[in-house]
UniProtKB/TrEMBL annotation:
GO terms for biological process: proteolysis. GO terms for molecular function: aminopeptidase activity. PANTHER family: AB HYDROLASE-1 DOMAIN-CONTAINING PROTEIN (PTHR43433:SF5), HYDROLASE, ALPHA/BETA FOLD FAMILY PROTEIN (PTHR43433). Its EC number is 3.4.11.5. Pfam families: Abhydrolase_1 (PF00561). Keywords: Aminopeptidase, Hydrolase, Protease. The lineage of its organism: Bacteria, Bacillati, Actinomycetota, Actinomycetes, Kitasatosporales. The keyword Glycosyltransferase does not apply. This is Proline iminopeptidase. It is an enzyme of class 3 (hydrolase). SUPFAM superfamilies: alpha/beta-Hydrolases. Residues 26-273 form the AB hydrolase-1 domain. Belongs to the peptidase S33 family. Transmembrane segments: none annotated.
């Protein structure tokens, strides 16, 4: 049974949320971005017999109500905790993807007593952006360049000021196509991410990324991760264009961590290897 609900935060922002699945373990999913929306349809279906899956759109994004922020890590951690409270969960497993992996980690650091297991999917670790961002941009151009016309159009749209809604969606599909290692199906996968299309909250993306960058690489973050008393699972796709070595910093810091690398998968590992992804998450939740 799938049920859609509205979560109201303490500052009055209305968040879209949805509960599905029939498993006994509660599992809250945190989507990537920032500035995007929940695209976890396939993940919810894949894990629905293992867990009761709760999805939500972050503030000012997707199906959640409009707002002007604030776009801070602390505010988003509080929103995630509002989702947990709304569904009456004392403790929950958290699965975060990409930016959502960072969000789930920061929630676990702030509220370790409220997190049963942390599943950290396709994140970029806790080191500074300089550890990985340059290689990511090079890998992105190389992946897009496997179809030269795609790279040319992406660059054209990137340099187009004031893109309209249709152009913004076209740019996003081209941009996201680099996340998939199979060039023959990459556009198909990226089109699925953009359907339905809600538009990117660029203010959220820019400000929240900047706020997160200030924290990464700091001694305080390393120390907090070293002291985190929560079981953690790191799941990587080996063919992610973000260097997986970026996540080594987090793996070294966490005292209770298992890491699974899916060799044929990219940034959304459930797409290329759904069976391997399901098995890894099931084991991480103690259900395998």
């Amino acid at each position: 049974m799938t049920k859609t609900e509205t979560v109201t935060t303490e500052d009055g922002v209305r968040l879209w949320a949805q509960r599905s699945g029939r498993g006994a373990t509660p599992l809250v999913l945190c989507h990537g971005g920032p500035g995007l929306w929940d695209m976890f349809d396939e993940v919810a279906a894949l894990l629905g017999d293992l867990a009761t899956v709760i999805r939500w759109d972050q503030r000012g994004c997707g199906r959640s109500g409009p707002c002007d922020g604030p776009w801070t890590v602390e505010r988003f951690v509080a929103d995630l905790d509002a989702v947990r409270r709304h569904f009456g969960l004392d403790r929950t497993a958290l699965l975060g993807h990409s930016w959502g992996a960072q969000l789930a980690l920061h929630h676990a650091l702030a509220h370790p007593d409220r997190v049963g297991t942390l599943v950290y999917v396709s994140g970029t670790g806790i080191g500074p952006d300089t550890d990985w961002h340059g290689a990511y941009k090079e890998n992105q151009s190389a992946r897009l360049g496997e179809r030269p016309e795609r790279l040319a159009r992406w660059r054209e749209l990137t340099d187009t000021p004031g893109r309209g809604r249709a152009q913004e969606r076209e740019w996003a599909v081209l941009h996201w196509s680099a996340e998939f290692p199979d060039a023959d199906r990459s556009t198909e996968h990226a089109e699925r991410m953009a359907d339905p299309w809600f538009g990117i909250n660029t203010a959220c993306n820019k400000q929240l990324n900047a706020a997160a960058r200030k924290v990464c690489g700091t001694p305080g973050l390393y120390a907090a991760c070293e002291a985190l008393d929560v079981p953690a699972l790191i799941v990587d796709g080996a063919r992610d264009i973000r260097p997986r070595s970026a996540v080594d910093s987090l793996e070294r810091a966490l005292p209770q961590v298992t890491r699974v690398v899916l060799p044929e998968a990219g940034h959304l590992p459930w797409v290329e290897d759904p069976r391997g992804f399901r098995e890894a998450v099931a084991a991480g939740l103690g259900l395998g």
